[in-house]
Every structure is written in structure tokens, then in C-alpha cells.
Amino acid sequence: MFAVGLTVLFGTTALTACQSDPMPTDVAVAWAGAGKSAVRVSWNDTNAPNRITIEGVLSSSPSYVKYIAASEPNTWEIPTSAFPPDGNYRVAVATGTSQGGVTSKLARSPVFDTDGPVRPGAASATPMGRGVLMKWTVPVAPQDFTPNDPLDVKGPKTQRYVPMIGRPGGMMKAIGPGTTSTRQVIKSIKPPYLFQLRAQNEWSTRLGGEVVGLTSSVNGVVPALAQFSVQVHVRGRVVLQETVCPAETPCVQRRATPAGVPVVVLTQVTPGARWTPAAGGSTTAGGHFDIPMVNGPSRPYKITVPGYTRLGVLTGPSTDRPAYTKSVVRVATAGFVGGPAKLRGDNVLVYTTVKPAMNTTVILQSWNRQTRRWVNLKAVAMRNGQASLLFKASQAGAFAYRFVIPGAMMFGRPMDGTTTPQLPLNVR
Length: 428
What we know:
six-stranded antiparallel β-sheet, single chain, 428 residues, nine-stranded mixed β-sheet, mainly beta, disordered N terminus
């Protein structure tokens, strides 16, 4: 083992001894042009052939080697694609050929970084007529560990943002030139789409700042018949369509049923009036919604998903077909003052109250056991939704009464009438 170690040591010493040619000097790097697509390396030597490599500084060295003949100029342009992104590197130049190997020590350029652009952060969309105003944020750039290196680009705006749009069936593509602004107006665009930013600097590209433009569809059910002033439930589901753009493949459309999508119930208070909100809520998991609503007069209702935006999302509006809910007069109270147990000869006051508080005429009926029919006894005036009748309990027995409340018109639409529950009266 000791002999092997000596062999390795002596071999290394022999290799260094062969590197007897003068070392190149003044190795420098600079951008090869305004486009910054290549790094120009320059050096001085004594008309010798050279080998150029890239060395990583606390980074892995890429496998890049270029040999320059002695007759060629002492410059070479290395494409930026040869440098791995987000690392620290330098260019090494030595005297040597591909056949004879390196015959001098390495001369190295100053260290420089290949940091890519800062990825755009959260983006938002604001509808503007037929178009959309896209705005995005850009996080603070990370610390530069090679400040003022020879390839640093001076100025506060060193990266550009290329706006891109993907639509179902098509590829993600740029829709305009790169900009240094953090906002962009896109004209005549409707969901579904995927907006994305391609941030570029001299070294690489990063994607970010997405906005998903969604289309929506809503299906719901309102009750066909409901009592006035009682709580009813409007139920249904919202389905969204989003655009997904896998890398290097056409974009596809995909269904989504997220929670938190706003839902509004609209109504027409009177025939021909504008649609106004009556209730609202939002979807739960699976896109379902259940919106409580106090029923009013007979009215049409329609369920809508308003166009809305939140960070990274813009949703287009949608509306279900209108549906009509016919209201029924609601009996609030009915019975006998003092209870249903009376003595013969007592005065009996039977009453009822209804909603809405309407003015009409109601009919008091009694149950005829022989004919098994309800028989009209007396028409009673109802005022502000209240009606009552005083009569004498002239004979003992078990009796049953009820009020018949007719239908009514309210805000230009008919409302169904109703009857009170059966009101039993026991006279002893």
C-alpha cells in the first residue's frame, strides 16, 4: 500500500513537471453582444494553442471543452446555454491541444454568477371592457454573492416578462413582446384560458405569475310552491371549466368543482322589473350550494354566478334559467280564546291571523258529521291579516271549525289561499 501511494505521488509530480509552457495571462470575460446570448473569453499568450473549460466555484463543473489553434485569435464565444443556471463559475484557459494535453498551468477569469430571473409572484386579473388588466408582483432578488462581477447587468430592470396565453386545444404561446412592467392589458380575451409569464434574463427563463381564466355553469332548484314568510332552501351545483397546459403539449380543458365560488339568487319584485339580489351564498366541496331564503310573494327567481376575481383566478359569469315560486298564504295562528273547552251558554271567540297581513273576507266553516262535508257558517272580515267571530255555545257536544282564506294578489302576482288546521271545540 505504501508503494502504491508513492507511485501516485510521483505520477502527479511528473504531470506538473510536463506543464512547462508559459501560462496564458489576462483571462477576461464579457458579453459577446447586446443580445447577451454568449460570453466572450479573451486572454494573452505567446501564439500557443489553447484549451478552454468552465470551472464551477462551489458548483459542479459542466463538461465544456474547446480547443483553439495557435493561428486563431485569442478570443472565443461560449453560448450561455453551456453554463448551468444559478451557480458561480469562471473560465479557465491553458496551453494545450486535444492530442498533447495541457502543457501549462491554468489561467482563470474572475468568478461570475449565472443567476436566472426572479420568478414572478402572485398575479391578479381585473376585467376591463372586453379585455383584462393583468398585474403581478416580483419578489426581492436573492443576495448576489458575486457583486460587480464582469457579467453583471447594470440597472434596476434586468429581466423581462413575456405574457403567454394557453387555450384548450392550442399550445401555450407568447402574445406580445417582453416587458419590464409588472402589468399588462390583454384585449379581447374570454375564459377559459391560462395566463402565464415567462420571465427572462441573460441566463435563463422561469415561468410564474399565473392567472386561470374559468368559465362557469350553474344549475339550481327553487321550490315551486312555498308558504309566505317561511324559510326555503335554494340548492344546486356550480361547475367550472379550467385550462391546463402541460409542458410541450396542447392545452386541455378540465372540469373543477371547488368550494368558495359565490352564488347569488336574483328575483323580479314586480313583473318587468329589473332583477335584484334576494339571497346569496357560496359553494362547498364538490361545487354544491344550499342557500336559505325567506320566501316572499309569488316571484320568479334565477341563480347566478357573478363574474369575480381573486388572486390567480378570474371566473366568468353564468346564470341558470328562471324558475317561478308561487306563494301560499301562511296561517300564523288559529284557535279559540281561552282554549277549546267550553260550557254550554258560553261566548266563544274563534280567531285566526295570517301572513301577509292582508285585507279580505274569510269564511268560517263547521264539519257536518251527517253529510261528512264542511259547511259554510259565516263570512268574516279580515283586516291586517286578523279575523275573529264571536258566537254562543248553544248545545253540548264535540264540534270542528276552520277558516277558509282566499287567494290574493300581491305586487301584481297571484298568491294561493289556504285553510286553517281543523279547530276542535268541546262543549259540556
